[in-house]
Amino acid sequence: QLRLRESGPRLMKPSETLSLTCNVSGGSVSSNSDYWGWIRQPPGKGLEWIGTVYYTGTTYYNESLKSRVTISVDISNNQFSLHLTSVTAGDTAFYYCARHGVTIHYWGLGTLVTVSS
Amino acid sequence: IVLAQSPATLSVSPGERATLSCRASQSITNLAWYQQKPGQAPRLLIYAVSTRATGIPARFSGSGSGTEFTLTISSLQSEDFALYYCQHYNNWPPTWTFGQGTKVDIK
């Protein structure tokens, strides 16, 4: 059974770079039929797609975040990562990793990242 | 493409029918619905407009076409009180968009 687990810092200061990793078990990030993505949700608010990576390294990003986001895949460790630069309080959110195609079938449990000085 | 969900909050009694709406800013052909409970990740309910995901009870159904889509819960159970989001995939450039959500709470 596929399991996705996010890891990374929970508390950050403004202007720092957020780095999260999604460890994948029960599946392979080298699958040619799946995309691997990040979605976030500010507390009490809705869902926002951040970006997605394919096993080839091809990436797709939300235009609103594109200038600050990098998503990469690490096939040897069966994981993929999110880097978000110059964070502000507005980046405080639950961050979910996911396996998806057109539809998001599998979600990680999510991790709350708080940006505060 | 922008997805607008209505109503923002729907108050329903257990056993009653709930109808949630998702309107797209232009005609689309793929739409999914997710359920989210407090402290949990979203769970896929419906994909490809009307196909129930694995393990989803038959009381959940999706319908619609063009710009108007509906999620219907035929007889609300206590475990169905939650947030519901619609989601669309745009083929090019590849983007995944969510509606702002509808909260179904107990009347």
Could you explain how this protein is built, in words?
The complex is a heterodimer of chains A (117) and B (107). Chain A has no helices and eleven strands. With 117 residues, chain A is mostly beta strands. In chain A, the strands form two sheets. In chain A, strands 2, 4, 5, 6, 9, 10 and 11 form a seven-stranded mixed beta sheet that branches. A four-stranded antiparallel beta sheet of chain A has the order 1-3-8-7, with no helix packed on it. The radius of gyration of chain A is 13 Å and the shape is globular. The N and C termini of chain A lie far apart (40 Å). The mean pLDDT of chain A is 96. Chain B is mainly beta and 107 residues long. In chain B, the strands form two sheets. In chain B, strands 2, 4, 5, 6, 8, 9 and 10 form a seven-stranded mixed beta sheet that branches. In chain B, strand 8 and strand 9 form a beta hairpin. The mean pLDDT of chain B is 96. The interface between A and B is medium-sized, with 20 and 22 residues.
The DSSP helix count of chain B reads 0
Instruction: Give the N-to-C terminal Cα separation of chain A.
Output: 40 Å
Low-confidence stretches of chain B: none
Using only CA atoms, what is the Rg of chain B? 13 Å
Largest sheet of chain B: 7 strands, mixed
Note the beta-strand portion of chain A: over 45%
Low-confidence stretches of chain A: none
Distance N to C terminus of chain B: 33 Å
